Structures
1.
Amino acid sequence: MMRMSINYDTIFKKYKQGRREDLIPLLQDIQDVSGYLSEETIIRAGAFTGLSTTRIYGLATFYDQFRFIPAGRIHIRVCNGTSCFLNGSQAVMNKIKEITGLNPGETARDGIFSYEIETCMGGCNHAPLVRINNKYYSHIKPDHLPELIKKLRFIIEND
Amino acid sequence: MVFTIQVNNKKISAEKGETILSALNRHGIIIPTLCRMKDFTPTGACRMCVVEVDGREKLVTACSQPVEEWMKINTHSPRVINARKTIVELLLSNHPDDCLYCDRNLDCELQKLAGELNITERRIRSRKIKPRLDQSSPAIVRELSKCILCGRCVRVCEELITSTSLDFINKGRSTHVGPAMDRDLNFSSCISCGQCVIVCPTAALHEKHNIAEVKEYLNKPEILKAVQYSPLVPAGIAEEMGFRYSRDFDRVLNSVFRKIGFDKVFNTGTGTDICISEIAGQLLERIKNKSDKPLYISACPAWIKYAEQFMPEILPDVSTVKSPQQITGSLIKTVAAARAGVRPDKIFSVSVTPCTAMKFEARRDGMMRKGISDVDTVLTIRELSRLIKLFGIDVTNADPEPADEPMEGRSSVAAMAEVSGGMAEGVIRSVWFRLAKSEAERQMFKKLRSGASFREAAFNTGSVEISVAVVDGLTGLNKLKEARASGRKYDLIEVMTCPGGCINGAGISSMNTKDEKKNRAKMIWQADDTDAVNLPEKSPVIINLYEKLIKENREISDKKIFHTHYEKRDVLL
Amino acid sequence: MEDLKKILVEKVLLYESDVLPPETESILRQIRREKTTAPVIYISSGTSSIISGSEETWSAIKTYLDENSLKTDLVRVGCQGPANFEPLVCIQLPGKNRLFFRNITGEKVDLLLNGVFHSDINEDDLAGQQGTRGFEMWPGIPFIEELPFFAHQKRIVMNNCGCYDPENIDEYIARNGFRAFAKTIRHYTFEEVCDIVERSGLRGRGGGGYLTGLKWKQALNTGSLSRYLVCNAKESDPGAFTDRTLLESDPFRLIEGIAIASYAIGTSNAIIFFRKGSEHALERIRKAIGKAREYGVLGNNIFSSGYSLDISVRREPGAFVCGEETALINTLEGKRGMPRLKPPYPTTSGLFGKPTVINNVETLMNVPVIMLNGPEWFRATGTESSPGTKVFAIAGKGRMSGVVEVEMGTSARTILEDIADGIKEGREFRAIQLGGVSGSFLTSENLDLEIDYETLREKGIGMGAGGFVIIDENTCMVDLVRHYMEFMRNENCGKCIPCREGTGRMLEILESIIRKPENEESGTTLERFKGVMQLDSIASVMKDTSLCGLGQNAPNPFMSALGNFREEFEEHIFDRKCRANVCRGLRTFSIDVEKCTGCTACASKCPVNAIYGTRLQPFFIVEEKCTGCGICYDICKFTAITVK
């Protein structure tokens, strides 16, 4: 997840002011660029669409896509859909908690790892499925994780 | 079109287009509801009003389902009663069990429902919601563990008040109601009007209590305890305590206060008269200078906060005159203090109002003089009723007594100021009296007394023409904006946050019907018709204050104590 | 290319007769690669294929072809369906039947292509040949259509999937694409189209099973200046991937379906509400819409018919409840996705208060063929109450999994035993779950049930959107039901009391059954039993009173499991036993003293210090402290630890 300073004007240019129905695409565009929704984003989105900050925040917290803290440099997504569940996703989740100490939705203090649970990534035949940044890892077993995470951490730290 | 439907095996008539609930209520069949608010469209959130309809697989909600001819409805079948009971039991399963300590004990809709549905055992247990208490606002307290997520407060704050300070946050079992960024109320755009408190069925939202503070000071003999109360308070207390109000009670209340332990009892109405008088003076000034800017009346503190947040550009046009409560308070700490020979810092001044926003107002920067607040604490009418009960005073057995001088009386327009349109009317009548030297005809004010959210009228004294706009409930601000955008000019604009005016403030009992609101206003207008003292200019109390007490007191003769200032607020809008 | 576009539009789409002249047919055959001089290699490239590594396969093949200077057409196609075969590579040598090779990852490419181009086909990875008229058969190689996976399917919706490049509109048109749309807007009125679809008996494939044509008529007959058509491509159900596979394999078909549906209800505004997270599929559909605009299939005054249409795509921001119609409408309006009261129904007052029709992807993909072949043709497939086919996403513990399309009326047994080829690793069958997270279970008693809307409804089972999850003996039904309830508790919108509080309470009770009790009071059998009785009563009130389908159907897995697997629940409650050894709180481990070497590996890893012993002597697990986590079981190199 890249954290860049956002040029709000380029994003807002695509939309007409004051339209509530543009709110979600607007927030999605901002999150695509910055990786999360900061307080400033929410205030600006509210000013642009003519809605109170309370409404924007209430809306954004309803949907899973929106994050309010930046993701880590290594963002782990574990699928907890039916097929993955039947094939042992719980064990994978427990292992990740054990190794990184993170609960779902959290980002580590040093900003390297973050972890979230997805309800279904649609790779049901590759269960249990884990996605780390943009790469998919299928048929993950808890034993695979220590090695994999160590490798990824090494790559990031030596980048 | 009227047709027949069958309810509980009896035929009743129903009109096409109405809901089942409306048809049932007309025939005296009561169905429990929880999320419903009169005058608002139904949302179907609580599911309490479900009824059984023949031919439908599932139960349907009576509040939203339109009637159909030949519908067969059963309102109290075992299946329906079981459903309602289970729903309330589910709510109770994660509701705190502290009814006896709760602010709404005996006045809680959930408690009432549990009683009506005969819930006598704790069948469903659950992990309770983690308690979260938000006491940051001076006027309103949020107790999230008691919230049943009916959504009434969210709707009222958006549809009635337009500040939209509350919304649902998250989803699923972690849903809760909160202001922007889930911070506390004091960071948000909440204007403390308390309309959410009125509609909340439980104690999830209630007013901040200042009774403990008052009790503490009542125990201090070295402090002069002064109290002021607004003209509505006597009628409000009668409603709260459940007895019939008559005008004698106004004076009985004075003795009740003394019995509680207050040394001095004053009438906020005096301050209202001064407020009207001062604003009239400002208006005359503007008319003389042919100013084309309107003068906004500033008596509603929730409106002032709203303007500071959302409309800072009009602040230069808002009258700097303080509200009646603050004016009376400032007089207590100066004139009354001097009279009693007491230093202002040895006075504890309490104000009783029908308003929660006044708790916020009392703490404002600009409501102090030399570091001493005009008003120390504000109690709502509800709190006063508790105080009266706490001190075991039998109000029906108390004798009438006069209030203390020099703020012992008021004109009838002072009472009208608590009805929407009333203060504007008072100002205009005062101006008229000063210019035309005669009284304005009541007929002229009919337009300002109607029930619309935006009203306007023009008055011609012969020498000047004054146009007035009244915004009744903040939803009327849009209409004001439209009118001004289309070129209309106003000299005086009154804005009240609570629809109908202070008579529907958050400090009095819960939700009133449109008729109950109208009745309170009617009583006040009737009194105005018959009272001899119907203008500040005619009130001996006011004349005395202006001619003697204020003029002769060097410290306040410049009348600066009657004025305050406003500033743009930096809150999460 | 300009000329080809012109030819396709004028000589194919706008051609008046159903039968095309031979010259045109010849061009189309070429586009369909039925007449080639060079070999063609097709690589499946849906999201599922990509996860399996099909992009590496593509690069490897490209490298091979470049290095060997081979003139070969390399085409990315959609998904054929069988997930076990991914990455699927199909090689077509000129004049001969296509050969399908399965699981061709990057490193296998060289070996495969060497073999094929030197006429030495490696049979290990060969799945079969596809019999095509006019092409030469390969001797001794089985036909892929005869594999049980394909033999029992009837592909009406999926007939193009995996057969053409989903980014190439010419290929779609060459397959009779967009002809139905062109015919519809130039020769039929709105009412006629609704009528045809209603007569065909097409029912909503998203789970509701409502007559599509009827829904369109309701919207059309509601007076309004504008209406909306929304294609629900959200596919909320975890465990479902049919819609995504369909639309990334045959996006133009979906566009055509949306176009015809929009015409039928008289609107120029169509919106695709797209599933979160499938960036690849999103790209596909966006490109396809772009191409359709280029060819004049979308835009103003399409084909001079006077009809205008454009399709916009909205990405859904992630909420299961938005699969519900009114919640979806609220999301499109920029509000929290909380369902609204019905009535009014969306067809009367929906998006922005206008009549709105929300249709599922699979439903819409049936529409072009109905318009092309007529309603009677459609009725000839399937059953009386449910004509046509149904696409299922087989997942779970079957040997074969993936996306399949069967005729309505096929039995679950056929799908389980023939198409999915039974249970992996020879394990015992427990149940099939239809309908995703709010679906019921089919056990061995009703495996022969004909799958159609009415038959299932009579048994109290919902068809669902296409989820078909196969469950074996290694799954604890109680834990599975708990998992679903946890999902419902997190995903419900929070508006109505029975669902919000009911799911929470039901989850707590289910958790108490599978966990070790924390204290005496909550741990008694009586408490657990009372809890299960409550589950029943809460479930029935939830079904009866919840505002929307989520709450009304959330108790289904529980009620179905309780009905079919009662003993398993009782074992958990009374015997504190989990027969599948899944519930950690109910299992304890013990050390076999014969096998234990005292290496202390388990004791050092035990998170609750429940393992005692002296080095080099057999160790011992204290049952009361054991939380059943299984760390010791996983770590023991001597298999000395067993589940009690």
Note: Helices of chain A lie at 8-12, 23-34, 39-49, 53-62, 82-86, 89-100, 144-157.
2.
Amino acid sequence: MSDAVQVIKSEILRRSQEEAERIISETEEKARHIVSAAEMTADEVLAKSIKPEISVMRKRILGSARLEGRKLLLQAKSEVVSRVFELVKERLSRIAEGKDPGYNYEELLFQLLSEAAQKFEEKRLMVTSNEQTLSYLRKNLRGIEERVRDALESEISLEVENSPYNCVGGVVVSNPNRTKVFYNCLEGRLLRLREILTGKVGEILFS
Amino acid sequence: MNVDELIEQERKATKMVEDAEAKSEKIISEAREKAKEIVSKVTKKEFLEARLKEEEAKAEAEAEEIKRRYAADAAKIRLTPVERIQKAISLVLEEVLPQFE
């Protein structure tokens, strides 16, 4: 075989190989396009059939999880807030027992009594409280009465009831026929203010 | 020059291109078949149900993660520092106890 023939044969082979490779390459590209177009069509079909259903299902499942999560947070916050109020109640007990050096219970008692007496038009008032406070009131009634009179500029007379009232501390004041009663007990004051203070307490604790 | 040899080579070359074209037709035919299958699959009940289950499982897994994060936040809340609790106690005591004039 001559070299010239060999060169022409190689050229024929090279050109035909190039042509075959071009055909396959273009075809593969076209095939990819066909599949990709089908996938897009399938997506459109899905969008019209189950995608709205999937979206609703996801919203339901994730929404429920978020709601459950928020309940957990609220529960945890509520527990901490309740703990604060429980600790305050314990502290009030210690204050009323005279075991808290930061507070003078006798002075607080005078303030609570004056505050309660102010609510009455009557001059003769009945006072009760827990055993310990009643005992203190009985021993110091005249002096306390005098201070209340001075503070309110009124001729009020105080009588200590025989039956104690179950409370942490503070006083329950009534008119003699008990048609009007003012509860100025420490835990009662706490209870009345709890709802109002919960927001502020929450701010301090969690902000 | 050996013309027969060249004719033979040309014949082989033509065959090579024809083979490529045949292969090309097969590739296109397979692609069309696959495309048809892809589109037809998404309309089948079993596929749709399987897809829904798959999406549901995905959403459930995401939901678990959300709940886990909230639970971690709740645990942190329960560990509120003592200083803040003391501050809150002081505020409540200040409001509950009568103020001296």
Note: The mean pLDDT of chain B is 93.
3.
Amino acid sequence: MTDQEQAPDDLATDARAVSITINGTCSQHHVQPRTHLVDFLREGLGLKGSHLGCEHGVCGACTVQLDGQVVRGCLVLAVQADGRSVNTIEGLSDSGAIRELQQAFVRHNALQCGFCTSGMLMAAHELLEKNPDANREQVREWISGNYCRCTGYQAIVDAICDVLASRKTAQREGAAA
Amino acid sequence: MKAPPFSYARPRRLADVLSLLEKHGDEARLLAGGQTLLATLNMRLSEPSLLIDMQSVQELKGLSVTSNGLRIGAMVTHSEIESSGLVAQHAPLLGLAAPHIAHRAIRNLGTFGGSIAYGDPAAEWPACLLALDGMVIARSLQGERRIAALDFFTGLYTTELAANELIVACEIPVATPSQRFAFHELARRHGDYAVVGLAASAQWNDGELDQVRLAWIGVGNMPLRSSATEQILQGQCLSDALLAQALQTLRSELHAEADLTHSAAAKQHLAGVMLKRALNTLGRPRQLAENSNIV
Amino acid sequence: MELQGSVTIPAAPQQVWQALNDPEILRLCIPGCEEVRQISPQEMHARVLLKLGPVRANFVGKVLLTDVRPLLGCTLNFEGSGGSAGFARGSSVITLNAIAEDTRLDYTAQASVAGKLGQIGGRLMDASARQMADRFFAAFKAQIAGAATGERPIAVAESAGAEATTAAPTHFPVVARAASAAQSSQGESWLDKEKPRLLWFVAGVAATTIGVWMGAHWLR
């Protein structure tokens, strides 16, 4: 992790040098302390897959991964991510990590305008990792931090449960084989 | 909205954090998990000149068992507590409470120390610290001091912490074999601020309750214990009569204030419901918690 | 948000009334208050830094006195803007009652906060208003107690000569003149705790009589 060199003036608000691993690639940037992670990703790097809804942490549209865990991109400063790794929906999609989820979302019509979708997928992805035995109630609780204005949520829950179920089936078949 | 401009420091040493804090006073804000602070800045409800990020200070991290009990570093996140085997074994009440805190993304960054320092009456950790007779360890350039949870929360968003002090860690006495815990919270939606909640602990000696601690969430302007009701339960066996007595005492002791969604009367009633549920939980022959594997 | 309360102040209504109308005392007692300026007899402007948990919001506001009943009470109408933080407005009715040598001050207040502070802080509105009121009256009582024992050079004594802070004399001229006469005698005899109280009582009776007469004729 790089050291934050103390500027001669403690209170200088200008841009700092940061080194962040984004979707697997480490790169250097200059960013003002006030800039939060999602603004940096969208405006600084053109990664527009993460969206801004409320900018105070309640809607979940800005959900990204920091060091492998989902976080609110609007409640992390880009400078806080110095020396750490960030994964966005673009990275997870390109790597194929969320392919099952994406296909299930399409199958179940779990998106309309798509604004909440990247956040939903990020959250669902962590659920699959952390609690592969989640039941419907637990899925609902897990994604209750991501707001959707279009679908009414049922289709999203259906899609996630679908993936959970098929993974368990695959696991059983794998074990039986 | 976007946060106003500010400066940023990420010292490695605790002494440097304290120096900056002392030097800049209220113009500087400590950045722990940032889940409350950054939301406040984004809404421009505060415009500090400097944020002091504590993420690189090793001394503030880690969960361990010491001679004083379970030590929770101030920078330990809610998720770390949620999934910790040490917590499950030595302070299972925290494991019961953790899933109620906001949502996963918030829990991955929000910290134990941050929650205790704000002392929000609707937060889970302050009430848990009260119910477990925890200790706050505060440090300033002048030195370290230990503050009992019972003395720590003094008013609305007001704690014993001095302006130049920060929380280094909290210590919680490890659970004894005869100790039982209950955590119940009511919120309109999962992750919302609690309408009413109760963190409870008690020793269970052959059906007799001992050292009952009832710490309330969302009832007053700060986390608080209902000591008169605790006294009623002290040394008693659970029964319908005892419950009725406890509920009556609670009604006269707790002065719930109305909030945006519930009247004072509704909160008083719901507090009684929480007490009933908690006593039911304490009375179960075997403590079965979702996240714990108690011996 | 609605609030009501009652506080007993160990001083005569005259002293309490004076202090309530003194911008300097208000500045010292209002939590986070940075400045209070008297604009006219009925209007004061204030700047307050609201500190609550993570919030630090500067509010600039004005207080208008209406329904003024000297020594008995008044209504305060206030409104303040916190910039992007929000907007607050409300009113408070204050009544004074002499109880033996003390004054019981009853207050009711209602306020609404719009904007972000109202949205985010809504659930804590009542509790924070109550805390501010408690802190205000604790400081207010300390100010008045300090004046009675002469320990603290508070505004009432200081403002005899100062220009900006002599709020009491300027807007209730007759009442205040009677009061300031009592003030100077009170300043000299602070050694004997009982004498000032008696003098205050006499001054209070005199001032009330004059004030009521004045009010009936002039201050309508």
Note: Residues 179 and 203 of chain C are 6 Å apart (CA to CA).
4.
Amino acid sequence: MLKSSVYYILHIMTKFGPYIKQKREQLGGKSNSLRKVAEDVNIEPSYLSKIERGLVAPPGEEAITRIAHRLNLDKDITLAVAGKISSDLHEAITRRPELFARLIRAVVNQPEDKMVKIVEEIKDGEW
Amino acid sequence: MGNGDAIYTDSYSVSFEFDATRYGYDSEILSHSLDVSFERTVRVPEDGQDHWLPPTFGSFELTATDSGPLRLPQGIKKRRGVCFPIYEHEALWFDLSISGPFRLPVALKVAAGKVNAVSGKPWTEDPADEQDYLVAPHQPWLDGFNSGDDVIRQFVATELGKSESVESHLTGGEVWGGIQLLAIPMKPEYYRSIIETALQEAESTRDLNQNADPDLDISAEMDMCCSMIPPTSMGLGAGGKIRQTIEQDPYGVDQWDFTRAQRLFVSMINADQWERISGVRPHPSPITPAEYNGSGGHWYHFDGKDDIGPSPEFDGLPPLLGPEEEQALHIPAFLRRTPD
């Protein structure tokens, strides 16, 4: 179990870092240099450099959220690449564990167009 | 809703969810729901005899009526809720189940065209003098209108405007159509009593079990306001007779919290027009009992404990079908239930 956990963290490190680096470089320009982005998201440039090179594990949810916002990335996707799930989604799932377990198992092999309508809140109207 | 109660759909059922923080418990553990799905089935003959319960061919697929791509009449969209396609004279039944660790009961009023399917009275969201609701999980299914002792008349879809629906026969008009649901939770003190009893039973069971796991966590077990009828709307008529008990409420009407009830309008759309409205093909046409029997299909029966008795409102409803249609529904005599 411990061995597989280590492999998982290594996998995430090598996936998340290059993902961030690629997205930052796609934006290009001095305003998106490693130093400038690190400064904007309030982390040390050397730390961001290590993250991008896959030398350290991804940072916490707050820092990832700031990086995603700074690089115009989807927060949930960026967190997923880092092997994390946003706290609001986590709360929603743990609040209704049976429902979400049922839903996720029901749609896990469905095509995407079916998945977007997996669950929705229904409102009452005039009648 | 601010109190955490809400209605969800996963496209095949609707879940009336109730937030357990109202009873003083952690909602993460005790949130519970009544789940209702609408099942495709075969229509039984209107030959005056009782029949066994028909099977399911799968759940009708539900869509929120305010879903963007749907081109529905404004009158239906204003009601919100969900909708599904159904063919004229196709039958359906309701599957009721409870989710949550203690199977906490929930009451459900069911109406068609705003006529209560249990009492035959006009729709009301208040308590009535006589039981006009079902109690899940005690009542697992509902196949039709409460027309006799341990007998119902099957729900069969009818096109509004043809005066075939129960709404038309009992109110003289066909204004609403569709299905109306009102899910009613228990008052907090009664849910607390059920939960505490179950916890104590679980605790004593654990004490008795010498091999019990010391780390066992018990909590883990645990518009139409106008006169125009939308051309695509369907209602429900009363079809053939089926043997089914409408279970008496074992708790009593005073234990239900009508102030916290959640309601839902379920619109039914003529399946012949569904592709034009949604861009999606509807399910295949229903099969006849003869075709079903020919494929070796089974019929079911469920005799409950105490039937609440028939509603006189449903006395004398005319047959839904003419002789020719009835002929198409022929099923072998050996499958018919012999009256007691």
Note: Helices of chain B lie at 27-30, 74-79, 166-171, 188-208, 218-221, 274-278, 289-294, 323-328.
